[in-house]
Structures are given as C-alpha cells and as structure tokens.
C-alpha cells in the first residue's frame, strides 16, 4: 500500500512538471506570435521615396506657414509620408530668464525634401547651429513649455533655416529630446 501511494505521488509530480512545461511553451509561443505580428504590422507599410523635379517651381520656397497650418499638417501626416530625416547634435542653452537660470537641452531632426539638401546642410552646420542657438536662447520658459510654444519654435527654426538653404527645403522639425531644467 505504501508503494502504491509512493507511485501515485511520483506520478503527480511528473504530471505537474509536464503541465508546467506545457504552460511555459504555450506562453513562449504567444509572446513570439505577438512579436511577429507587431513586426509585421510596423514593417508592412510601403516606403515612399519622393522624386524632386529640377523645375523652377520645385526649387521655389514655400509661402510662410502659419502655426495652425503646421498643426494640421502634423496631425494629418502618416509616418510613411515623412521624408528623409537629418539629425542634428544636441543643443544645451540657457533660456531667457529674469529670475534664476533655466537650461534647455534639445535634440532635433530636420525633415528634408530630398537627399541633395543634406550635402548643403553638412557644409553649413556651424551656421545652422548658430541660428538654432540664437532662436532657443531668445525664448523664455513660458514660451516653450506648452505644445503650441514648441510648435511655434519649430516653425521659427524651420523658416530661419529655409532662408539659408538653396538646394531644397526643410519640411519639418522633429524634437527627439526636449528637457527643461
């Protein structure tokens, strides 16, 4: 009788171990399936490359954009519609302030209308950094802490940089880091 109880106990241990292994395998399969679906869903969008024409109309600068039109563009654009991005080094600047010191650390990327403008930007990096620093240091905490303020600064940077480039245009500014201290 004692042997029978011992055998039953061993069988229960084996079945519980087997059940645990089955549960672990099922969980791993679910995780892998979820990851595969996520990768497929994000990587399935077709990449669109923009073709730039060499006509005088294509080289013309766009009219100055308003903040409301920029908000509409930003809200309506899909990720697949965003053009080539040109990352800039991080900017750390003092904000304009009457009381105390406030610092702003910003990293951003410029959206370009084509690859050809990147060469011009490479050659003008010191000028670009100077213009961005001048714009950022002229702002107060109140001016840049809201969403609308960030969009206004973004529009000002874009307009300023578009005024100095000749081989194309900057279509957007994307902040990848924005820290106020």
How is this structure best described in words?
- With 181 residues, the protein is an alpha+beta fold.
- The chain has a domain of 125 residues: Band 7 domain (Tetrahydropterin Synthase, Chain A), CATH 3.30.479.30.
- The chain contains seven helices and four strands, in the order αααβββααααβ.
- Strands 1, 2, 3 and 4 form a four-stranded antiparallel sheet that branches.
- α5 runs antiparallel to α7.
- The longest helix is centred in the first third of the chain and has 42 residues.
- It is elongated, with a radius of gyration of 28 Å.
Pick out its properties.
181 residues; alpha+beta; Tetrahydropterin Synthase, Chain A; 4-stranded antiparallel β-sheet; 7 helices; 55% helix; elongated
Short description, anyone?
The chain is an alpha+beta fold.
Number of strands: 4
Structural class: alpha+beta
Share of helix, binned:
40-55%
Which percent range describes the beta-strand content? 15-25%
Average residue pLDDT: 80
**Gross CATH architecture of the domain at 56-180:** 2-Layer Sandwich
The CATH fourth-level homologous superfamily of the domain at 56-180: Band 7 domain
How do the helices and strands follow one another from N- to C-terminus?
HHHEEEHHHHE
CA(first)-CA(last) distance:
76 Å
Number of H- or I-type helical stretches: 7
CATH topology of the domain at 56-180: Tetrahydropterin Synthase, Chain A
Low-confidence stretches: 44-63
User: Major sheet: size, sense and barrel closure?
Assistant: 4 strands, antiparallel
Taken from the alpha-carbon principal axes, the silhouette is: elongated
Radius of gyration: 28 Å
CATH class of the domain at 56-180: Alpha Beta
